[in-house]
Write a structure and sequence with these properties.
Number of domains of chain B: 1
Radius of gyration of chain B: 21 Å
Helix content of chain A: over 70%
Strand order of the largest sheet of chain B: 1-2-3-4
Largest interface: A-B, 59 and 58 residues
Order of helices and strands of chain A: HHHEEEHHHH
Number of domains of chain A: 1
Strand content of chain B: 5-15%
Shape of chain A: elongated
Helix content of chain B: 55-70%
Strand content of chain A: under 5%
Structural class of chain B: alpha+beta
Number of strands of chain B: 4
Order of helices and strands of chain B: HEEEHHHHHE
Structural class of chain A: mainly alpha
Strand order of the largest sheet of chain A: 1-2-3
Distance between the termini of chain A: 31 Å
Number of strands of chain A: 3
Oligomer: heterodimer
Number of helices of chain A: 7
Chain lengths: 187, 239
């Protein structure tokens, strides 16, 4: 079995130009990240973060766990507290996913579905991440630091790539790749 | 075992490798890699900023790091300091956790490359990407040092920064510390591994282009830890 048959690449993607795709993703991501750091968007971002913490608190309570919430801080009965800050709410990887989906030559309906579905999946993974970190922090601070700053962040980026991969595979197999001049011009 | 789709296989393999390689990095490779970063950073800083050998970054007793960036500024006379003083270099302390961030892209890159099938085919991209990631980490370290020294100089001179300059420096910090180290491994993996790129994006015919064609070396992703406060010292001499 050769590499091509193993990965089963749809032929539709032959027309997509990597350089233009990369430039559009890069520009969109930089623009999205820059907008994220502006004051009005940061206000909305904080509210969103508090909402995520409230949801995590609810999930922990429903599953029989014990925690108290104060804004974006989740506190255990033992005294350990964890705060979800900007960067912990997976908004940045969502911007990355949106940039990649936006840059891919698919119909707008597919793009909208990709962004909505992908962002939801990423947030589900992020909720799981936050809850596991909440419990890990009660067990060991050095391992909390390792999992928080390095392991889970890398896993979420990998998840985002895979979410995009599934979406792109769906678009390519559906045969709806949009033939825009940008993506089909000869190099 | 059920037949899994390529993205699922990649996710499972990648996750397992990330857990394994990052644990190995955390427990074993971290100190040697910090030493390598120190050597590389020292050489690169001498080329970019000037200054003496071995001064750019040092580990202190508390395992945090002190950076020294040559920067010449003149501090005007004040009530506290009668004659104007010339500052030749700026020292600032950086928490160990922040310096560690400039070494962790390598194990992540290895995990992503090794998650793609075909050990033999992965060897060349692995080597090329390792060099590229090491270079990116050095560049990030220099950008981080330059922006930190610039902020420290502004604080010493009590010169208020404009809103745009403040935003730009914060944005640069955000990209350098919280975004690029996390995204660079993925971007470089796509840049050097054409089979992986082809299968994720469906690119088949034009993948023979040079690897650099699809690199987005500055794009990135964020992490959830914030920068620790840095203490700043200056080396002054009276004019």
């Amino acid at each position: 079995m050769n590499a091509n048959s193993r990965w089963n690449v749809p032929a539709a993607g032959r027309n997509i130009r990597p350089v233009k795709f990369a430039l559009i993703v890069f520009s969109c991501f930089i623009f999205g990240s820059a907008v994220l750091l502006t004051v009005p968007v940061q206000r909305v971002d904080r509210l969103f973060t508090q909402g995520l913490v409230a949801l995590s608190h609810k999930i922990i309570t429903i599953c029989g766990g014990h925690a108290t919430r104060q804004g974006a801080i989740l506190r255990s009965p033992g005294g350990f507290a964890v705060e979800m800050r900007d960067g912990c709410n997976a908004v940045n990887v969502t911007i990355l996913l949106c940039s990649a989906v936006f840059a891919f030559p698919a119909p707008w309906k597919m793009k909208a579905l990709g962004i909505l579905g992908g962002a939801t999946l990423i947030q589900v993974v992020n909720l799981f991440r936050f809850i596991t970190l909440f419990y890990l922090g009660q067990y060991s601070m050095p391992w909390f630091e390792f999992a928080h700053a390095y392991l889970w962040e890398s896993l979420i980026v990998l998840d985002t790539v895979v979410v995009f991969w599934y979406w792109a595979m769906h678009v390519l197999r559906s045969g709806t790749v949009v033939n825009t001049p940008d993506f089909n011009a000869s190099p | 075992m059920p037949h899994l789709k390529a993205p699922t296989r990649f996710l499972l393999r990648g996750s397992a490798l990330l857990i394994g390689l990052l644990t190995l990095w955390w427990l074993v490779l971290l100190d040697p890699m910090l030493s390598a970063l120190q050597c590389g950073g020292d050489i690169a800083a001498r080329l970019v900023f000037g200054g003496k050998s071995g001064e750019f970054m040092r580990e202190d007793a508390s395992r945090n790091w002190t950076f020294r960036v040559p920067k010449r500024i003149v501090v005007p006379a004040s009530r506290v300091m009668a004659p104007p003083q010339q500052v030749d270099s700026i020292d600032f302390d950086v928490a160990r956790t922040d310096v560690i961030g400039f070494t962790f892209s390598l194990p992540v890159f290895w995990a992503v490359i090794l998650a793609a099938p075909g050990w033999r085919r992965n060897l060349r991209p692995l080597l090329a990407g390792t060099g590229l990631i090491a270079l990116i980490e050095l560049i990030l370290l220099l950008i981080f040092a330059a922006t930190s020294a610039h902020k420290a100089a502004a604080a010493i001179l009590s010169a208020p920064m404009g809103a745009f300059e403040t935003w730009l420096l914060n944005f640069s910090d955000y990209l350098t510390v919280l975004v690029v180290p996390y995204l660079a491994p993925i971007v470089v993996a796509f840049a050097v591994h054409h089979e992986l790129r082809r299968n994720v994006f469906g690119w088949t015919t034009r993948d023979k282009q040079p690897a650099k064609s699809s690199s987005i070396s500055n794009s990135s992703i964020g992490a959830g830890h914030s920068r620790k406060t840095r203490s700043v010292r200056v080396h002054r001499r009276a004019l």
